[in-house]
Amino acid sequence: MTRHASAGLLRGRGAAENPANRFDRIEFVFDPEDPDRPAPKTEFYRDASRSLITRNESPDLGFHASINPYRGCEHGCVYCFARAYHEFLGFSAGLDFETKIMVKEDAPEILRRELSSPKWQPQMIMMSGVTDPYQPIERKLRVTRRCLEVLAEFRNPAAIITKNHLVERDVDVLSELARHNAVGVYFSITTLDADLAGVLEPRTSVPARRLQALSALAHAGIPCGVAVCPVIPGLADHEIPAIVAAAAAAGATSAAYAIVRLPQSVRAIFERWLARHRPAAKKKVLDRLREIRGEDLDEKRIGRRFTGEGELARQIRSLFAMSCRKVGLADSGPDLSASSFRRPTGQLGLFD
């Protein structure tokens, strides 16, 4: 059973409704004119998964192993491709994605067991490949931090991508990993416009605060980069040079980008968001996405998922490359090393 919320604005939420789950036959629809409809509150559920490290073989991704302490994301980024994955849990890709969060409370213990196994081949682990490991509840639950402590104990390399300045809290553990050339942190920035970010990705750190956190980590000797993700043609693609320059000034040494793709139900959610928040730009944005992605606004083909194809996609790629050259940013992150990996025995401390 899924729920449709009102089509009106909901403060602090990216989606304003719950479109029907594509796997469900039954749906419950709220009366959009009902004044007594309660505002959605975030709920947290225990994820009882018995494994943590997931693997992929896609040459697009640049990593083969990842961990996701949370499923669903309270940040509420309206364009997030991971919204579609929430439907496999019986939820909606809309409000459910940002209000019904699955928490892997036992993630650090599972990670320790998996790294201790002789089957584990030391390699870089992405944190995280799907949802942000530093969403608001992490401040209280500290699942991501505890996973980082395990990684530091094993000296297993990790890369982090986040939109939250909370990562700055873990500078001590990140510094220990950096001592072994075993960590890189990417800050994802879609726009520098705080007003646009406030409705596009409502519960993330404001862009300026992300840049401050990037600067703090860089000054602590932690390799940092910027991910201009996602690039939204017709809405924020013109900001690519400014984002890259601001990140470089803050201490970033590398940059990456990806053009937005809207799989399955995410397309309708994004189109409704445009109609509510940027109606004048709606046609331009969708027309440009069709030029890059085709009619379904998605792309699954290897080599094109992140960059798209066509003349406009080439122009964006050239703009990004030129922006990076101008400020001296590499187009790839640090080459992390697993040479210091160890399987601790006895009672080793974190910084032994």
Compact summary:
The protein is an alpha/beta fold.
Q: Mind telling me the C-alpha Rg?
A: 20 Å
Largest sheet, if any?
7 strands, mixed
User: How confident overall, as mean pLDDT?
Assistant: 89
Total helix count?
A: 11
Element pattern in H and E: EEEEEEHEHEHHEHEHHEHEHHH
Poorly predicted spans: 1-7
* Basic shape: globular
- Termini Cα gap: 51 Å
Beta strand count:
12
Helix content: 25-40%
Q: Structural class, judged by helices and strands?
A: alpha/beta
Beta-strand proportion? 5-15%
What topology, given as strand order, has the largest sheet? Answer: 4-5-8-9-10-11-12
Could you please describe the fold and organization of this structure?
It contains eleven helices and twelve strands. It has helices at 95-99, 107-116, 138-141, 143-154, 171-178, 194-200, 207-219, 240-250, 265-277, 282-293, 311-327; strands spanning 3-4, 28-29, 43-46, 54-55, 65-67, 70-71, 100-103, 125-127, 158-162, 183-188, 224-231, 254-259. A seven-stranded mixed β-sheet has the order 4-5-8-9-10-11-12, covered by helices on one side. Helix 5 (171-178) links the parallel strand 9 (158-162) and strand 10. Helix 4 packs parallel to helix 5 (171-178), helix 7 runs parallel beside helix 8 (240-250) and helix 8 (240-250) packs parallel to helix 11. The protein is globular, with a radius of gyration of 20 Å.
